[in-house]
């Protein structure tokens, strides 16, 4: 039976590459994105990645309900939360910056997870992935809000893994950094030799990670051969960060 998978912010970060990798394995992919409130945006994405069903739902409960109506079950939830890595000294940060970042990277994934868990408990099986960041593992000066929010999401994943294990639900987090993505490394930045060299100097492997490499790990953790893996925060950052 084909797995039914729901990916959030699918038009951003590693949502598209992950969808392609999972489609290649025969999964049925549903995606939500803020842009999908517009019918033209949904149609464009479905044309871009054939096989994905772009959902208009913006409310987590409605998104999960749409998958259940179509498939009768939800096997995997991928919280692919994307938000700008806002830079600035802590004494210049605003409450608005703090609230918006936590809304995007913590509250949204919590709400989506809360909506998905009842069905996963009912079917006695499920997987939840948080596609997060390695920033909290090393700490990055002047990125306090972003690192704090990603750290909260990482901790949420580790805690939920223990809470949901008795229901045969595996929860893991991937701590990404230095993955090629226009959301975090726009072409204008990488095409500047000085900027690119500065970025690469921080990465022990000396290069950015490919979206396809990130997607392959997502596909593994979303698949049946990872059923005994839960409660893991896995850095995918070219050696820049290690799990603690």
UniProtKB/TrEMBL annotation:
Keywords from the UniProt entry: Oxidoreductase
Similarity section: Belongs to the short-chain dehydrogenases/reductases (SDR) family.
Highest taxon in the source lineage: Bacteria
Signal sequence, start to end: none
Protein name: Short-chain dehydrogenase/reductase SDR
Organism encoding this protein: Parvibaculum lavamentivorans (strain DS-1 / DSM 13023 / NCIMB 13966)
InterPro entries: NAD(P)-bd_dom_sf, SDR_fam
GO MF entry, a single one: oxidoreductase activity
């Amino acid at each position: 039976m084909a797995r039914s998978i729901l990916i959030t912010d699918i038009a951003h970060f590693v949502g598209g590459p992950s969808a392609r990798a999972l489609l290649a394995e025969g999964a049925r992919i549903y995606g939500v994105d803020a842009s999908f409130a517009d019918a033209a945006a949904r149609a464009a994405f479905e044309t871009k990645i054939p096989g994905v069903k772009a959902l208009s739902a913006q409310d987590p409960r409605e998104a999960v309900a749409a998958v259940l109506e179509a498939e009768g079950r939800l096997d995997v939830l991928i919280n692919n939360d994307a938000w700008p890595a806002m830079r600035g000294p802590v004494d210049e940060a605003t409450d608005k910056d703090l609230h918006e970042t936590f809304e995007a990277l913590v509250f949204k994934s919590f709400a989506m997870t809360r909506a998905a868990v009842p069905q996963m408990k009912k079917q006695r099986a499920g997987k939840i992935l948080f596609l997060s960041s390695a920033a909290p593992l090393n700490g990055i000066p002047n990125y306090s809000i972003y690192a704090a929010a990603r750290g909260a999401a990482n901790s949420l994943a580790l805690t939920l893994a223990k809470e949901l294990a008795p229901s045969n639900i595996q929860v893991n987090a991937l701590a990404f950094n230095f993955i090629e993505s226009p959301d975090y490394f726009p072409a204008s930045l990488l095409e500047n030799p000085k900027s690119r060299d500065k970025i690469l100097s921080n990465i022990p492997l000396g290069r950015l990670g490919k979206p396809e490499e990130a997607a392959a790990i997502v596909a593994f953790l979303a698949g049946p051969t990872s059923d005994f893996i839960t409660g893991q925060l896995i850095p995918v950052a070219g050696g820049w960060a290690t799990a603690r």
